[in-house]
Amino acid sequence: MTTLLHIDSSIRSTGSVSRQLTAEFVSKWTIARPGDTVVARDLARDPVPHLTEQMMGAFFTPADSRSPEQAKTVALSDTLVDELFAADVIVIGVPMYNFSISSTLKAWIDHVTRAGVTFRYTETAPVGLVSGKKVYVFTASGGVYSEGPAQSMNFQETYLRVALGFIGLTDVTVVRSEGLAMGEPSVQAALTHSGRMIDELVSV
Predict the structure, then answer these.
(1) Which metal ions or organic cofactors does this protein require, according to UniProt (predicted)?
(2) Is 145 one of the annotated binding-site residues?
(3) Known binder of ligand: residue 100?
(4) Has 127 been labeled as part of a binding site?
(5) Is 16 among the annotated ligand-binding positions?
(6) Is 60 labelled as part of a ligand binding site?
(7) Would you say the pTM of this structure is higher than 0.90?
(8) Per-domain residue ranges of the chain
């Protein structure tokens, strides 16, 4: 049985294309694989707090040396890390905000990127410890950033690939929905393309 971790990061509760696509993917996945388990995390409804000095201090304190307050501080991060390790498949909805990802998704990444837990340093280079998982990223953007002059402004996908790869998540498939602010024909073309990709990915 497969465990699928479904993460949404759009601040919009309605009208969100990234939410629409992750929901469609998860629905079709579970229809094709009814025995699988889905764990959902909505970073807009239940935002992860941004890092503080106290949190960082707790992260770098050995578990058996933490104060009760530090243990409480680390609890949510530990839960997020446990969800990540338990998942076989990870689905992330990622709208583009000002050329990058939402601050809530960045906060989630900050909580699951922990030295000695999800990556470790070696004498030559850092090594990711979260391996053997498949990641599907559904991006949404008002403009087109996968090609042309605007490609250099796409910090959304490039950052995600680096951040996920750093902790060992290197098997990443990105489904782009672009041009969503460029008129209804562009929207329909993007949704049709993404829908076809979802069908192909789910059927594998």
Answers:
(1) FMN
(2) no
(3) no
(4) no
(5) yes
(6) no
(7) yes
(8) 3-203
